[in-house]
């Protein structure tokens, strides 16, 4: 009969134990975090030379969203293109940078690829940060020169 109270006490103490901790929430890959950070800036003001929430130019936007995941990248679109690891256009992933030649002086515009042929960019004065598209025949598809990636060089992960 003494075994029954001991068994009952053991069962009650098992019920009173804390539940196991929940598994940690996985962080998205750095490229996805970069694309999400860029999408969150849609509607922000354009500001030539800007790289913070008071306003962005195209390369400042790319710089800002990379900083959100702990990556430091060059400041201008042309420097970003030279410093990025080239990515074939058929292998674009969210967070990749798209480099454009809109004027006659080489790379002069950059956007952050978000998937589904869309990217976020700070187009020019008077136009807020917005989405652009790469659909066949579109203005940006015709001016796209290359794509590059900084986010897979290290094991960077969003904070």
Spans of at least 5 consecutive residues with low confidence = 7-15, 154-159
Which strand order spans the largest sheet, edge to edge or round the barrel?
Answer: 3-8-4-5-6-7
SSE sequence, one letter per element: HHEEHHEEEEEHE
CATH class: Alpha Beta
Helix fraction bin: 25-40%
* Net shape: globular
What structural class should be given to the helix and strand makeup? alpha+beta
Could you name the CATH topology?
endopeptidase fold (from Nostoc punctiforme)
Mean of the pLDDT scores?
87
Helix segment tally: 5
How much β-strand is present in the residues? Answer: 15-25%
Q: Gap between N and C termini, in Å?
A: 58 Å
> What's the number of domains?
1
Corresponding CATH superfamily? endopeptidase domain like (from Nostoc punctiforme)
Number of strands: 8
Radius of gyration over C-alpha positions, nearest whole angstrom? 24 Å
Q: Give the second-level CATH assignment, the architecture.
A: Alpha-Beta Complex
What does the main sheet amount to?
6 strands, antiparallel
Which short descriptors sum up this protein?
two-stranded antiparallel sheet; globular; single chain; alpha+beta; 159 residues; endopeptidase fold (from Nostoc punctiforme); disordered C terminus; six-stranded antiparallel sheet
Structure description:
This protein has 159 residues and is an alpha+beta fold. The chain has helices at 3-16, 30-39, 58-67, 77-83, 139-143; strands spanning 51-52, 55-56, 85-86, 97-100, 109-115, 118-121, 130-133, 144-149.
